[in-house]
Amino acid sequence: MCGIVGYVGSKQAAPLLMEGLRRESYRGYDSSGIAVLGSAPVSFRSVGKLEELELKLKGQVVEGGLGIGHSRWATHGQVTEENAHPQTDCANNIFVVHNGIIENFGVIKKKLEERGHQFRSETDTEVLPHLIEHFFEGNLEEAVKKALSVVRGSYAIAVFAVKDPGKIVAARLSSPLVISLNDTGGFVASDPAALIAHSRKMVFLEDGEVAVIEPDTFHVSDLNNQVKKKVATELDWSVEEAQKGGYEHFMLKEIMEQPEAVANALRGRLLVQEGRAKLGGLERVEKELRAIGRLNIIACGSSYYAGLAGEYMLEEYAGIPTDTDLGSEFRYRKAIVDKNSASIFISQSGETADTLAALKEVKEKGGLTLGIINQVGSSLAREMTAGVYNHAGPEIGVASTKATSTQLAVLALFTLFLGRQRGMSLTMGKRIAEELQKLPALIQQTLEQAPHIQRMAEKYATAANFLYIGRKYSFPIALEGALKLKETSYVHAEGYGAGEMKHGPLALIDSSFPTFAVVPTDSVYEKTVSNIQEVKARRGPVIAVATEGNEAIQELADDVMYIPKTLEMLTPILALIPVQLFAYYMSVLKGNNPDTPRNLAKSVTVE
Ligand code: G6P
Question: Is pTM, for the whole model, over 0.85?
Fold first, then answer.
């Protein structure tokens, strides 16, 4: 999500840190900062672009060969200078930059405050320097290890201490970190893109590892002081390739990141034994939510399709009547906002003009507004009464991918949260929580089919039209599949409810018109199979997305892409993967750049 960079060596650290942050800036950020240790520590932080930080550094003496830098993409706390990193302890001895989330920061902060620690920011990160200060007895590595044994959550950190100079201590858990050395010193970063200009040899840290980096050496061990042998990987990437994590396009990188993105969206939010979802962002409206009798979901583009699947989840499992609206329709259709209802706004960017206008309309009419937003501190996030962030990390490809899957995961969490407030049994709650927990691994399993899906794209590359069909939870995926194909490959595609075939689309079918049927083994399986038969009877080629173990579908469909079995309401999250990959490969085959489709923008801030 955010960017970390650190340097210790014979050169001046400040320019190297700024360069590293610039190379990581493609990931998106909203504030930044560096701390450098020369004869005394200096720290500069600023809101906005890196140029703002550069302005602050201008004319200042920032000398020293040890430093850490950070570009922050806000998660806990607003976008302010106080919340930017590096964060420090009370004595200005410990300087920390951190990516990730410290889940138990509330409890730790309370205990530290009772012991007299003074906190200056709203961040979860700030507990780290204070906790390290609490354990510090002159040896930074030891203090960091003790502190990390107390925290829960995910982290990549780089730390230095004024009273134990000449080294950076770095550690990771569920958030990437890489080390490299050259003849001037040692580097650490969250992204190889920040370091590749200095050395091609990278040492990737694994979860639970702590590294001590010095100018000409480093050593790695775990929290129990077991020494870890590390082997360097030589990367032959260009800087641009490194920013894409070695993938050809951001879209593919972001598709492949979905196991981690969904894990981040779920992290700390599932109480499996209690069969409940813990959504901190909804706690202050918990009482109002108990009383509401209706929900309205409002969004645009792929977020709208995620909303449609959410509607089905919320009605089936939470028992709340739900409607889904396009932002652009809602704002003009004189909708009635019932005091007994709440509206859920879904948006990756949090800046979509139509969704924002719809929010203002609901607020004016006195409705309760909730959000599922990826971009922290965005306009929608600020205007909302309460909400839950996706934590998908920055999405750079214009066509939404990991934002959509995390929106679906958060909608499932909403369903669990609201369902357990109502009639949902403990057994059902546990079942949903358990299945949600398995999702990242199941998404990973689905992604392994990428080479097969690429071959399918090659096979169907000359088709001029596609129909995408599905029922119930697969209906929104049919709509999303058609949208993905249109926007990235410029091939005409339409999404339809499979039951609607005979009301029109069937007239289009012939042997040159392929149909993509999303047909997992669920409560409407047989109904969709009948619709596939209607297509086959007109000699239309069929590509089916089906559940693993369903061999029978091979008799009917021309080609099959499999997804693992999961709870019916979670199938859309898995079925998304094949339609995303198919669109991606089709786009590349057509010679397009899937990251920047013609005529489209990532953030649609105009009507
Ligand atoms: C644009 C993007 C889509 C996105 C839609 C809604 O059209 O290209 O990928 O789904 O906006 O954006 P939002 O940021 O509100 O989710």
Answer: no
